[in-house]
Amino acid sequence: MLQQQPKKHPKPLNAYAKYSGLAIQMAIVIGGGCFGGFKLDEYYQNQTPIFTIILSLVSIAIAMYLVLKDFIKPQP
What we know:
The structure is a single chain. With 76 residues, the protein is mostly helical. The chain has a domain at 22-72. 74% of the residues lie in helices and 0% in strands. It has two helices and no strands. The two termini are 25 Å apart. 9% of the residues are buried.
């Protein structure tokens, strides 16, 4: 007779650590993009902050990709 193994439920602390890590990762990616764009605008002395705008939007897209990739990952 086969015994059924009890289902493992994720611990709340593990989920909290996982989502905190995702938030920190997003903040670093977006902050890095904004900072890089600001420094490029400062270097080229642009009147409009075009590099800041472009790199901010690109970094938001990259951060969203990384988060969605982690959510869609198949669970073991």
